Amino acid sequence: MNPPAVSNPSSSPDTDASAREGQSKPANSGNLTSSSLTNSSEVRLSRSRQTWTGAGSAAGFVLRYLPPMRRLLIDVMGSESDADRALAILISHLVKAGYSGHAKGRLRDFLILGLRSAAKARATEIESKAKKAGESVISRELDLDSAKTESREWLSYWRDGLMQRAWRALEREQHRERTRTQTVESAKIDEVESAESEEPANDLVHDVLRMVTNHSGESSEVIAGRIAELAERSVSAAEVKRQLPIARSLFAQLLADEISLTLEDADAAAIQVEIGKLGLQKAFSGLQVKA
Questions:
Q1: pTM across the whole model
Q2: How far is 27 from 81, CA to CA, in rounded Å?
Q3: Phi, psi of 59 (to 5 degrees)
Q4: What does the alpha-carbon distance between residue 181 and residue 201 come to, in Å, rounded to a whole number?
Q5: Closest Cα to residue 14, out of 163, 206, 202?
Q6: 5 CB-near residues (< 8 Å, 6+ apart)
Q7: Which of 92-106, 123-137, 221-235, 275-289 has the lowest mean pLDDT?
Q8: Which of 25, 91, 115, 235 meets the CB 3.0–4.6 Å disulfide criterion with 29?
Q9: 263 has which bridge partners?
Q10: Residue from 193, 169, 157 nearest 250 by CA
Q11: Which pLDDT score, from 0 to 100, does residue 156 have?
């Protein structure tokens, strides 16, 4: 897939990050950018067959996406406390009734309907309590325009939520790799032979991509210094350059996996459509994207 330019005008630090990762610079530039390090890697769009429609626990699965859901409900309700109560109403319903036979299509479409219902239920709850207390009842106005399947707000929050999950997954990959390398080092079994046969550690993938994203244009030496403080070990510019393309392809793969979970028919074509709809094309820029 050769990603076209992002058409969605809304942005966030994470989506801006994906865009910066796709920008190009001359190969002889002294600044460190992911595109100046070739080494394109392969991303499989539909490598997982697990989807939201097959989740054993509807409530448990939906909890993954609380941040975008809460952000939207705050817009709809105009209050954090009411948004949290509406969320509790929705989760309680999912615990009792599951998907109620509506596990079809895109998860974000299913959720927006649930969020609208939960917001209305919370508004009714507020009015009922006011009546019981003998207070004057003021009809609660809800901003339901933002709670539509294709609203700019919902698409933006949903995109940010998927990006955040991909970042956390990349951080877990880094932790697993770091734990693995530490275990190998501590074992100290036939150190010379082990050192020759052991593949280079990829224990900085999250930190490298984060630093390059947050400090675009800085030299590899400066980036290495920043990462060394986090890793609490020496980090060379060469190591940063080696791990960066690995980090980019890993992040793109994790993002594709996350998107596939939210679709009923998660084939490559459907995932590509969703990537375009959410404006995430540049996260895959320069990579070999395959079915």
A1: 0.82
A2: 52
A3: -65, -45
A4: 7
A5: 163
A6: 281
A7: 123-137
A8: 25
A9: 106
A10: 169
A11: 98
Give the DSSP letter of residue 124: H
Give the DSSP letter of residue 106: B
Q: Read off the pLDDT of residues 79-99 as tens digits, 9 standing for 90 and up.
A: 999 999 999 999 999 999 999
Q: What tokens does 125 get? A: 């709850």
Q: How far apart are CA 47 and CA 49, in angstroms?
A: 7
* pLDDT (average), residues 177-204: 69
What does the pLDDT read at residue 12? 36
Could you give the C-alpha distances from 154 to 36, 75, 104, 289, in angstroms and in order?
34, 10, 19, 27
Tokens in use for 251? 């992040």
What is the C-alpha separation between 120 and 86, in angstroms, rounded?
8
Beta-carbon-side half-sphere exposure of residue 115 (alpha carbons within 13 Å): 31
| Burial of 289 from C-beta contacts in 10 A (0-12 / 13-18 / 19+) | buried
Q: Quick one: pLDDT at residue 27?
A: 33
CA–CA distance, 19 with 216 (Å, rounded to integer): 11
| Cα–Cα distance for residue pair 41/287, rounded to 1 Å | 5
Q: How far apart are CA 279 and CA 288, in angstroms?
A: 18
